[in-house]
Amino acid sequence: MTDPRPAVRIASVDKIFRGRKGAEVHALSDVSLDVAPGEFVSLIGPSGCGKSTLMRLVADLDQLTAGEIEVFGKTPEQARKDQDYGIAFQQAGLLPWRTVRANIELPLEIHGVDARGRAARSDELLELIGLADFADHHPDQLSGGMKQRVAIARALAERPRLLLMDEPFGALDEITREHMQNELVALCKETGAAVIFVTHSIPEAVFLSDRVVVMSPRPGRIKDIVTLDFSARDEELREDSTFYDGVTAVRMLLHDGAADGARGVENR
Ligand SMILES: Nc1ncnc2c1ncn2[C@@H]1O[C@H](COP(=O)(O)OP(=O)(O)OP(=O)(O)O)[C@@H](O)[C@H]1O
């Protein structure tokens, strides 16, 4: 039976950072958002609108000032302890002294999975990300895209029902990036995981997401949400007029209908 609870429930969240000299930054104001199980939601908006802050609150890496966040009905702290989600942030964050396989197995090792169980799972994941031949390599022997794939495999190691991804493809070249997007679509289909995905790229958000949450800064808040209802997310979609309609809808919201760009958002 599918879980009726949202994967993530964000209710009236405020986050105020207080500096040492009493200066305040109102990073998030009255942000509410539910993410359904299996849903792919992107956060997009100009630099400083609070995308990473929101992600960090969900991941229990920071504390909110007001409001409430639940992850599968639990506090973010409990969800973190229960390993209910996997995290992949911009820097792949692999341990350089560990092999590809040992990096992927790290969360399993921490949670006491035995060697045989770890090997079976890392075999599956290496196959999934197409790096079976690189299992014994070290991160410095891999390209940026390969490292990112390893980081995603590590995030998936414990079969999380939720993935939190903050600009995971930001450092990749355009071709690798599109390839990774295709892989992520396939992975989500296969695992049924919900995803919250931070990006600066409008086409990336539109291609991947069921919903694109457009945020605005000072204070960071949700400006609007664009729902995308594509029947398939494949190479053909990238050339389809419905895809361009989605890109235009998000761009108009970001730019308040103006033709010039919003700082920190890529049109490519
Ligand atoms: N630890 C912190 N202390 C004080 N202010 C912070 C802290 N972290 C973030 N901020 C402020 O909160 C606001 C939101 O920052 P955040 O990093 O969430 O934005 P963002 O939308 O992810 O930006 P970018 O697109 O540039 O990554 C900014 O004004 C930032 O300066």
From TrEMBL:
GO terms for molecular function: ATP binding; ATP hydrolysis activity. The keyword Transit peptide does not apply. CDD domains: ABC_NrtD_SsuB_transporters (cd03293). Residues 8-242 form the ABC transporter domain. Gene3D superfamilies: P-loop containing nucleotide triphosphate hydrolases (3.40.50.300). Keywords: ATP-binding, Nucleotide-binding, Transport. Pfam families: ABC_tran. PROSITE patterns: ABC_TRANSPORTER_1, ABC_TRANSPORTER_2. It comes from the Bacteria. PANTHER family: ALIPHATIC SULFONATES IMPORT ATP-BINDING PROTEIN SSUB, TAURINE IMPORT ATP-BINDING PROTEIN-RELATED. This is ABC transporter ATP-binding protein. It comes from Demequina lignilytica.
